[in-house]
Write the C-alpha cells for this entry.
Amino acid sequence: MSFKLLAKINPRMRIPKFLAFLSFIISLSLSGCKENMSEASWDVDIIAPVLKTTLTLEDLERDSIIQAGQDNSLRVVYERDLEELFLDTLLTIPDTTITNNLFSVIPLNVPAGQFIPELSQETKYNLKGAELTKALARSGKVTVKMTSQLSTKLFFTYKIPSATLNGNVFQFTGEIEANGSIYEEFDVSGYTFDLKGLNGNKINTLVTSFSGQVDPDGGSVSFASNQTFITIDNGFVSIVPEYVRGYFGNQVVNIGPDTAQIKFMQRIIDGGIGLDSATLSLNFSNGIGADAKARVNYLTAVNNRTGSTVSLSHPVIGTNINISRAIETFIQSGYVIPSEKEYKFNNANSNLKQLFENLPEELHYSVDFELNPLGNVSTGSDFYYHQHQFQAKLRLDIPLSLYSDDLTLVDTIDFNAGDNTLARRIQNGSFRVIVDNSFPMEAKLQLFLMDTNNIVLDSLITQSVIAAPDLDTDKKVIAPKKSTVIAAITEGQSEAINNTKKIKIKASFTTPLGNELIKIYSGNKLDIKIIADFNYLLEQP
C-alpha cells in the first residue's frame, strides 16, 4: 500500500521542528493501515522555510567602520595607530647589576660591638645616551646581594638616600652571618629616584649607603688597608618609568615596514568602483617634552587579488616633518599640552581617490622617528610622562557615493538543516529564493553550501540576477524590488544539504546608470528568504 501526503507547513516553522511534526503525522497515518507494513513507502511533499537573512554593508564589516551620516548615507571611516611610541622603550633602565666593594683605606682592628659608620657610594648607570636627573618608577624591582668577608656576624642598615616614597628614604636592615651572604628583592613602584649624585651635579647616578655593627657577642675583627670587607651587588630589574627628567639623547626609531589590514576591503573579491571623493588625515601628536622629527617614507595600497599597488603621492611623503616638544605646565605636575601636526590628503592635493579605487586590502607603510634632532637644546629639561606618548595616527573617510561594475562582496552565515535521516531521502524539489532588493543597483546572487571547514559542497544559485529597484529624482530607492529565483534540487544533493553548516552569500552589484555616482544609504539591503519545496521518500523500516 502506498499513497502521497501533501503537507503545507506554517511559514514560521523551521526544518528541525517540521521534521518532528512530520513524524507525528506519519505515525497517525500508520495507525490506520496495518497491511504489508514491511513494503510500505510514501512520497511526501513539504514546503518549509529554511533560512531568512538580511545582507547590508554594515553587516559585511563587523569592525563597524561603516557609519551613517546625518542624511543616513554610508561612509567608510577607518582609523589606525601607525605607531604609539612609548618612550620607556627608549629610556629603558636595563636589567643591570653593579658591584660595589666597601673597604677602609687604613688598617683597622674592630672590637666586638663596634659600629661601622655610614659609608656612601655613587653608582652611575649607562642609559643608552640619555642623561637623566630624576625618574619616578611606574613599576620594577631593586635587588641587593651582600657578601661579608668578616669572621663574625654583622648587623647592617642599607639605604638608597636618593630613592624616596612619600618623603621616606628607601632602606632596610638585616644581619649577615660570618663569611656569609644574603639576597633581598624589593618592589620600588612609586619611588622617585634623584640621579644627580652626592653633590647634585651629576647624571644617571644613584647614591647608596651602608652602616653596621659588629656582633657584640662575637670577637673582634681586623683587616688591612684597602681590604674589602663587604661586597654589595645593586641591581635594577624591569624598571618602567612613570616620569623622567633630563636629556633624552638623540635617538632614531624606524617604524616598519608595517601593514595595516583593511578588513572591509578583504570581503570584496571582484569588480571595480569609482569614488566621488576620499579624505585621509595623518596626525602627529607629541606628548613628550623633547623635539621630534618624523618622515613618512611611503604609504602604499595593495590589492592582493589583482597584484596591483598604488603609492600615495603628496609633497609630505619622504620629507622631514619637524614636531615641537610638548609643554609641561608645572614640573612633575602631570599636566601636559601635546604638540600637534596634521596633514590632510584629498582629491585636490593627492592621488588618494585612485589609491582607494584600487580596492586595497592592506596599507603598507614605513615611518622614521627621531628624538632631539638638534641635540640638547633644553639643557637637560626634557620630560616624559608614561600616559603622554608620541603618536602617529591615520584616519580615512570615504563617502559611499560611487558607481560599480560587478563589485562583488562575500559573507558567510551559519546554517543547520538538522541532524535527521529524513534530509537524506530528498528525491527532488527546489529552493525558492525570494529577495527584496533595496540597494540602488542590480545584483547577481550566488549561494554556496559549506561544511564546518568552509569547504564548498555545492551551489544553490549560479549568477541569478536580482533586479534593481526604481529610483526617484534624487537617485534614492522608491521601494524595494522583489525577485524570486528557483534553485532545483536533485536527489544527489541531499547529502550536501545534510552536511551543510554554513552558507556563503556572494553578491555582485552594478549601478544602473553607468558611471553616474549613486549614494548608498543605511536602509539599503538585501532581504533574503529561502523556502524549501522538497519531495521526500519515507520507508517503514
